[in-house]
Amino acid sequence: MFDIPKIWEEFRESSDFVYLRQSNHVDHYLICFLKSITDINVLNEQILDFISKNAGLLFDELFEELPIAEKELSSDWDEIRNKLLLGYVAIQQAPTAETILLNASSSKGRTVSKPEIEFNVEGSKEALVESLDINLNLIRKRLPVASLRIKELHVGDVSKSRVAICYIEDITNEQYIQTCLQRIGDIQFDTVTDITVIQQIMEDNSNSIFPQMLGTERTDRIVWGLTLGQVCIVVDGSPNAILGPVTFQHFFASYEDYYLPWLIGSIIRMIRFTSVMFSILASSVYVAVLTYHGHGISNAFLPTIIASRINVPFPPVVEVLIMELAIELLREAGARLPSKIGQTIGIVGGIVLGTAAVQASLTSNFLLIIVALSAMASFTTPVFRMSNTIRILRFPFILFAQLWGLLGIFMCSIIVVTHLLRLTSLGMPYLVPFYPLRLKSLTDTIIRPPYSKFHQRPGFYRTKNPARFDKRKSNLKNDIDE
Q1: Is 60 exceeded by the pLDDT of residue 16?
Q2: 444-479 burial, b for 16+ CB within 10 Å, e for fewer?
Q3: Cα(387)–Cα(366) distance, rounded to whole angstroms?
Q4: A GO term (biological process) for this protein (predicted)?
Q5: Minimal CA–CA distance to 444: which of 257, 264, 259?
Q6: What is the pLDDT of residues 265-318, one digit of tens each?
Q7: CB burial class (10 A; 0-12, 13-18, 19+) of residue 7?
Q8: Last residue of a domain, one of 410, 429, 448
Q9: Are residues 297 and 359 in the same domain?
Q10: Does the N-terminal or the C-terminal CB of the chain have fewer CB atoms within 10 Å?
Q11: 96/229 Cα distance (integer angstroms)
């Protein structure tokens, strides 16, 4: 018999650390593992059972014969410790440091479910989960091509989080691949628990409120982005992935648009763009018109506005800010509470507060309608991070409208557009193909074209293979008997 080596002492304080002694006529083994992250079925049925039935094998023969796909031989204690923390089983030969490492990690977690944020009526119902291996399986299943490359890194000095970078080698521009590898490899942070941490660190301008990487939980959207020439980044423990580089219009295009007929999809997309503009500008225009440009109000609306505001003691900007903050309060309360209670709070709270605010003369009926429509319009943004940006943007526009009226709204618009012109995503201009203008790449922006027009990948991705299919054959619809 032999004592446990000193190198295992740091693990003995953990109650989930297990070590077993095994010996035959020649060698003595020490089998160590962490039961909390080790698959007990694999351990019992494929490792311990095999060792007990083949007790006469030498250590080297045992390594060759063990029926485990992922195994290696090592005497480096740092590597042994790191593998043990990932769910490996270590079989150490005594009294040497030679150790067999067998992958028996447990993959406990929730099963694949429907998307919670990017919900759709038509199309796929598969969403990413917290397991990196399952997520990569979902992507591989939809892209069964040999050119799909997956580069795995470990990020975080403490968490050692697994990060996978996915791309299609014969399509994706090499510059984007190297940029992602370099930025993720340079991350100096102790704990990376979610993809949003990596997204904030590796974005081109971390001080901007506009997201420069597209977060998604949908596997079909990931596959579509990979075939366009984007890079996908997935983190173990996060049910979301990020795609890059992206452009501004990507955040207002729902992937469900591609499941609908192109005319319907285009109309819905244009409604979405219009709703976003209304959500940003409606309240600020109300403040500007009532504060500086009352003479521009039509005679048909003037009596209604005067009657609704005659008992309101606040100036328009205070009235608007009260209502906007009340809407944000209801939105946050509904989001943080359990789903059924949150829905009730949102509906009942909105009705009660709106009615009470009008009866107490804190706001006008006219503004209540505008703020309610603005709030609903902001929900049309399919990407959650951009939806938050739209919510925040309303407030500077309101303040500029109070200071300089319509001129202030125009000045604030110039500031926002100038900021967008300077933004990049992995080095690619944020407003392309509008600026710099790329006429051939304007196809799938505001209007969703028919599939026969998707014969070329967007030129601004600078892909290795720009052609998707032969344009000459795209409109051929031969009869079934031909």
Answers
A1: yes
A2: bbeebeeeeebbebbebbebeeeebeeeeeeeeeee
A3: 24
A4: spore germination
A5: 257
A6: 999 999 999 999 999 999 999 999 999 988 878 777 788 888 888 888 889 999
A7: middle
A8: 429
A9: yes
A10: C
A11: 50
Q: How many domains does the chain have?
A: 3
Domain carrying residue 183 = 132-246
Residue found under tokens 């150490």 = 92
Query: What residues pair up with 91 in beta bridges, in sequence order?
Result: 31, 100
Q: Which residue do the tokens 């983190």 mark? A: 235
What distance in Å separates the CA atoms of residue 357 and residue 354, rounded to the nearest whole number? 5
In the three-class reduction of DSSP (H, G, I as helix; E, B as strand; rest coil), residue 203 is classed as coil
- Residue 395 sits at φ, ψ, to 5 deg, of -70, -45
With respect to residue 435, please indicate whether it lies within any of the assigned structural domains. Answer: no
d(CA 93, CA 62): 11
Terminal Cα distance for the chain, rounded: 81
**Residue 480 pLDDT class (50, 70, 90 cuts):** very low
Q: 274 and 421 share a domain?
A: yes
Number of Cβ within a 10 Å radius of residue 313: 9
pLDDT at position 344 over 70: no
The torsion of the CA quartet 292, 295, 301, 304, rounded to 10 degrees, works out to 60
pLDDT for the residue 343: 62
Longest Cα separation, the chain: 104
Does residue 108 have a pLDDT over 60? yes
62 contacts: CB under 8 Å, gap ≥ 6 = 51, 54, 91, 100
